[in-house]
Design goal:
Number of helices: 1
Structural class: mainly beta
Radius of gyration: 24 Å
CATH class: Mainly Beta
Strand order of the largest sheet: 1-2-3-4-5-6-7-10
Number of domains: 1
Distance between the termini: 53 Å
Strand content: over 45%
Shape: elongated
CATH architecture: Beta Barrel
CATH topology: Porin
Order of helices and strands: HEEEEEEEEEE
Length: about 180
């Protein structure tokens, strides 16, 4: 009977050590993050984002930006992380905000327009987003996030006249994001 006690003690210690190691490796939940779109800077776009988690599944945040043509936007966002590991993994969400846009005469102006002399108009936006995020580093605090989405601009006149020309405002705006920042 005595020979089983050391074996039983060794098994209990081995099982407990694995549990302690797993608990020590688990990192704390990071409830906030800030990030900027570094890839937008060479294209004349400056934007930043803040996100605060109510739970590991649901977050609320804000984003704002301006481009070289003085077009700007600010939005409030809510995201849902189905894996309950936010800010990691897939997230889907909605946004509401305001955008200040220029009217353009080109109908095929999809993403990049270089006419900076159209009139500015302000409208409200409602949008949908799909994102994927990573936390990197030994303590998982460096944030990288990508995403796509679209937002509809409401409240702008369909047409406005400038110097006798009829110019149209864009009604649906695509959004692409590549954010880098920190979670804390």
């Amino acid at each position: 009977m005595r020979s089983f006690r050391p074996l039983l003690a060794a098994l209990l210690l081995a099982g407990g050590a694995g549990t302690l190691h797993a608990q020590a490796a688990e990192l704390p939940f990071l409830a906030q993050r800030v990030s900027v779109n570094l890839l937008g800077i060479p294209f004349g776009l400056v934007s930043g984002e803040y996100e605060r988690f109510a739970t590991e599944e649901i977050s609320f945040g804000a984003t704002a930006g301006i481009d070289e043509n003085s077009e700007s936007w600010a939005e409030a966002k809510v995201r849902y992380y189905p894996s309950a590991r936010g800010p990691r993994g897939v997230a889907v969400g909605m946004s509401v905000g305001v955008a200040r846009l220029r009217a353009y005469t080109e109908e095929d102006c999809f993403i990049v327009c270089d006419e900076a002399d159209g009139p500015l108009g302000t409208g409200f936006t409602v949008g949908a987003i799909v994102d994927y995020s990573w936390l990197l580093g030994r303590r998982e605090r460096f944030y990288i996030g990508t995403g796509i989405g679209a937002k509809r601009v409401l409240g702008l006149k369909d047409e406005t006249g400038t110097d006798g020309f009829v110019e149209d405002y864009r009604k649906v705006l695509p959004s692409f994001r590549f954010q880098t920042g920190f979670a804390f």
